[in-house]
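ZP: hey, is the magnesium ion complex queued? I don't see it on the tracker
AM: it wasn't, my bad. submitting now with these inputs:
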Amino acid sequence: MKTKIEVLGISKKFGDHQVLRDVSLKVKEGENLVIIGSSGGGKTVLLKHIIGLLKPDSGKILIDGEEVTDKDGFGLKPLRKKFGMVFQSSALFNSLTVAENIGLGPREARIYTEKEIKEIVEEKLQLVGLEGIGDLMPEELSGGMKKRVALARSLAMNPEIILYDEPTSELDPPTAHTINQLILNLKEKLKVTSVTVTHDINCAYFIGDRIAMLHEGKIIKVATPEEIRASCDPIVGQFLTRDEWKKGCPGSPGLTERNDA
Ligand SMILES: Nc1ncnc2c1ncn2[C@@H]1O[C@H](COP(=O)(O)OP(=O)(O)OP(=O)(O)O)[C@@H](O)[C@H]1O
Ligand SMILES: [Mg+2]
């Protein structure tokens, strides 16, 4: 299968804080690669490199074989068009209605009439199961609805790639499950390639075709959910709940002090 995103030996330092260390990853067309790692580990920084919002100190990133990392502003525009991004904080504009938030991209593109923009907004709201709420303000929405509106906004320009930054953080388990289900449905329906960042292993198991583990700025493992479940590598074990780890490695881990209750 075709490689859609190629991350080649990316390193990034802020001051003397080395955040990413020689990170390499390949994302195949149509797959959902999940990046899992602890808080502050560089997951968001990695996503921002993929979409060209940050530049690496060394290494490069290719999208469909074309380099992102050597381009700025104008040069990035055609590449950016391929992306939809759902930010960690949802990042909706509070002074704009839901419809205006979703319509931002299409309106800026200056190729659609107001009627067409209205149709795009309604179609995307329908995709996330929120038809008819376009006139609401973000403050009137629950956390789960905000995530879904952010998702609808990321879909507005029909992206080939969606980057999800912690799509289920701060949501209660049933709402988180709804969002995970939605991510899976969108993948099936729209055939998009996606990269999802999370610290929730259950989310990773549920939506990931493959899971990449980011530990101290390095990718320590890339494997399918089944392979991760079966792994007895103690570093991999740190990402799993105690029950999951025991299942894979009966009697062996010796990691009972891990704080994962
Ligand atoms: N623009 C920046 N300038 C300086 N330091 C930054 C910048 N962006 C991120 N960092 C630092 O890089 C490190 C990794 O941040 P990042 O946001 O990628 O973590 P994360 O894995 O997404 O964490 P979380 O799960 O909490 O969202 C942090 O120590 C953060 O303070
Ligand atoms: Mg983050």
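AM: back. The longest strand covers residues 3-14.
ZP: great, adding it to the tracker
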